[in-house]
Amino acid sequence: MIAPESTVLVVDDDFRVASVHVGFVEAVPGFRVVGQAGSAAEALRQARELRPDLVLMDVYLPDGDGLDVVRQLLADPDPSTGSGTGPAVIVISAANDLATVRRAVQLGALHYLVKPFGFAELAERLTAFRHAQERIAALGDEATQDDVNRLFDLLRPAPAPASAPEEGRRLAPTLQAVLDAVAARRTDVSAQEIATAIGISRTTAQRALTQLEQSGLVRLELRYGSTGRPEHRYVVRRR
After folding, report:
1. Which pTM does this prediction carry?
2. Which of 32, 43, 48, 225 could form a disulfide with 11 if both were Cys (CB 3.0 to 4.6 A apart)?
3. 3-state helix, strand, coil in the chain (%, to 5)
4. Could you tell me where the DSSP H helices lie in 1-97?
5. d(CA 174, CA 180)
6. How many angstroms separate the CA atoms of 233 and 56, rounded?
């Protein structure tokens, strides 16, 4: 059984930065952005209406503190249970002072990413969150200590490999084919273009490109048009 997509609300006062984060989230399989807010008031309204699984929360907002929003969200009762079970939160902020970080930890934030950060850093934490959610769904009403230990281990992003495979060697066949197709292009390329070139589905191509980007073999670039969300384009990362 395929788990439903994890829904995400992105909160940032800078629309362009928020759009980049939306692009990052939607490049990770299993996630779907359902809302984007640029203020504390809008973040609260959308979170209460949309009930996302996860919120990416900026700290500096024009009308308030993002961590105050987190506190209110975590105290909000779930309409179906009446209990305080708000969304999970990953804080994304330029704030790196210890007081702010400590407060985020005390409020129960899953992770804290200091801006600017790359796609791979966010993707690791999103993937860890999804794996933990899938594990929770598979458990019964009670958890053993071993279950709890595994859940908290899952929330820690996997360490990056010491080095990426040289020139793509030792990659799985599909990953190698996708990498070769990207390398064959003189310009950046989309998941759909790769899928058409080597005869695989766009979903498979996107998943492979995400893995290659996380391994440091390709680089994700966001191309902005006049309207709409940025297009994801990929190029080989030269060493």
Report:
1. 0.65
2. 43
3. 45, 20, 35
4. 15-26, 40-50, 66-75
5. 10
6. 23
Residue 185's Cβ-count burial label (10 Å; 0-12, 13-18, 19+) is middle
| 3-class secondary-structure state, position 170 | coil
Cis preceding-peptide flag for 165 (omega within 30 of 0): no
Please report the beta strands in 69-217, taking only residues with DSSP state E, as ranges in sequence order. 88-93, 111-114
Tens digit of pLDDT at every position of the chain (239 positions): 456 889 999 999 998 888 888 888 988 888 999 999 999 999 999 999 999 999 999 999 999 999 999 999 888 765 544 445 689 999 999 898 999 999 999 998 999 998 877 777 888 899 888 888 777 777 777 777 887 777 677 666 555 444 444 444 567 788 888 888 888 887 889 999 998 888 888 888 988 898 888 888 888 888 776 556 778 889 987 65
Q: For residue 221, give the nearest of 205, 232, 210 by alpha carbon.
A: 232
C-alpha span between 189 and 232 (Å, rounded): 8
Instruction: Find where tokens 């390329």 sit.
Output: 189
Question: What CA–CA distance (Å, rounded) separates 125 from 21?
Answer: 13
Task: Compute the distance between CA of residue 115 and CA of residue 127 in angstroms, rounded to an integer.
Answer: 19
Determine the residue type at 159: P
